[in-house]
User: Fold this.
Amino acid sequence: MSIYKQFCEETFDEQGLLSDFQIKYPYNYNFGYDVVDEIARHEPQKRALIWCNTEGKERIFTFEDISRLSTKAANVMHAHGIKKGDRVMVMLKRHYEYWYVSVALHKIGAVMIPVTHMLTTDDIIYRIEAASIKGVVCSPDEGILKKVGRALEKTGSVTAAWTIEREAQGFYNLTAQVEAAPDTMERELTLASDPMIMYFTSGTTGYPKGVIHDHTYTLAHILTARHWQNVEDGGLHLTVAETGWGKASWGKIYGQWLCGCAVMVFDFDNFDPKQLMAIINKYHVTSFCAPPTVYRYLVKKGVMDMPSLKYVTTAGEALNPEVFRLFKEQTGLTLMEGFGQTESTLILANLVGAVSRPGSMGKPTPLYHVELLNDDGEYAKAGEIGEIVIIPPSDGRRQAGIFSEYNGNEDLYKYVWRGGIYHTGDTAWRDEDGYFWFNGRIDDVIKTGGFRVGPFEIENVLMEHPAVMECSVIGIPDPLRGQAIKAVIVLAPGYEPSLELQKEIREFCNSRIAEYKWIRSIEFVKEMPKTISGKIRKVEQRGE
Assistant:
């Protein structure tokens, strides 16, 4: 029996569809001790992780391996002063060390902050200061070490910093220290309600906000893995995501391991559809999840010969029905779409056994009571657009899978919970049969290639260029990325529109921001459309 059954109660209707799902756990639940160590105790040789990279290297880890390595890593961090409640930034790309480092941090009771390697030095400094980060674990890539090193010098508040596989100035060699560390430890007393993980996610205004989840977050992802991704006990699941993003928690560790499914990790820097297909076929991946951008590339390149795949899912942005059709035509597999946020787990989905409607996000999962709220503050009728909101349990229980706080921003937390319900900021409409269809964001967050990008960060950099008097950053339709980032600019006196100036401003900005935020096009205008209060009307700029 999969260990996940100890932590939930599932109810199915007469058609065999999941109709109710409740998580249950002891007061001191901890994924490291109660899942990883328990599986290792009962099935030590059960496969947990298969890792390979583009250079042909391969590593296979059992649950016994992950249990032992995570304990050793926890001892290393304890020895350097990392303790319960401390925040530790983890920038490990797709290196296999991420999996035992994350479990080690959970065992300590430290708060893990995964971040992408694409961050700039300024991005890293902001996160270190905003989250009062005490420890850093990062990739050994020279460029990454330089960025992190400069950030550490400027902040001076980090207790210990590690890299992997080698020595580097200012960084301990985690690999060597883990090898030498003891492989036993006393269980740290952590509570299920203690903070466990923090992701930084972009908003409309201001810099990225820290979204904090407690230890029960891992259990809410049982539904993600078992009832949406349809992972198998003893199977092999691959989700395309770098560990710095919330999608990694959805598809690369928690729900999959709880359900006894191994995780496939392909360590690459540049996406190549044919390469990905070769890995899926070589290792006989059984279930697969990726953002719509990946499926667009697979279909466009005609790379769809993957006979080992039994189930495929997608989330992150709307996917064109034509991609659904072509993918099913070539593979026989139906793409099952889902919807959730960094602040939540799976809110809407085409669950296992359900009839999928191409382009629909599906129906509310049994974890959540979901409604659509119209502009009048009333529940929307069928066909009417409204904001996706979550109604908490009537018995006063805390809503499972929803984040516990925004780091240092209680006012924002209260705002998204205004009226006693959780406001997602995403809008949709519901058809007569109860299927939800995505409409857009209430705010101006851009979803590009599976990433969330807040316009504020890019606009701040643009304003540093002397030719820019006023600017507005928006998302525009893009056939591969879903949305591409566009800058609308009013030039300062003395500057005239030209292709050369477009290129200069674009390169000026893109050289100062992370790659996933890059501007793809620029338009010069004489003035911005504005509201009476002087706010730029991005809706009008997007042609909505």
User: Anything to note?
Assistant: The two ends are 51 Å apart (CA to CA). The mean pLDDT is 93. The longest helix spans residues 63-79. The longest strand covers residues 468-478.
